[in-house]
Amino acid sequence: MFRKIVRADVLILDDGGPEQMTANQRRDPVEIVDDRYGRKATVVTAQLPVEKWYDIIGDPTFADAILDRLVHHAHRIERDGPSMRKNPRPQHPVEASGDVK
User: Fold this and answer.
1) Helices 60-71 & 23-36, crossing angle to 10 degrees?
2) All structural domains of the chain
3) Cα separations (Å) of 76 from 20, 44, 50, 70, 95?
4) What is the pLDDT along the chain (101 residues), one digit of tens a residue?
């Protein structure tokens, strides 16, 4: 199904988890990463460390298939520190002046 739909040069899969995938939910990421492997860029963001992805994927065979393709040519960036969401959002100058309509 996704092989005909996902043709973007860069695909961003944002924040999968934290619930364990069902059998049906496992098939989509396998097809997506398999189709894009070595041809197109895929960016994955997650709050869970990669070591916990096996638990979330829920099946070691599917987890191996997904993670092998994702990490083989990957550039991993791990953030360490407090959440950026805990910081108050800076106000836009118009919002700060009270001129928002």
Assistant:
1) 30
2) 2-79 (3.40.50.300)
3) 23, 10, 10, 10, 36
4) 444 555 789 999 887 767 889 988 888 888 888 888 888 899 988 888 888 889 999 999 999 999 898 888 888 888 777 777 677 766 666 655 555 55
Exposed, middle or buried: residue 16 (CB in 10 Å: 0-12, 13-18, 19+)?
middle
Token pair belonging to 82: 């407090």
Q: Which two tokens stand for residue 89?
A: 């959002």
Query: Bridge-partner residues for 41, per DSSP?
Result: 10
Tell me the C-alpha to C-alpha distance, in Å, between residue 26 and each of 14, 23, 59, 86.
Answer: 16, 5, 8, 32
Q: Which H or E run contains 33?
A: helix 23-36
Gap between the Cα atoms of 24 and 38, Å rounded? 25
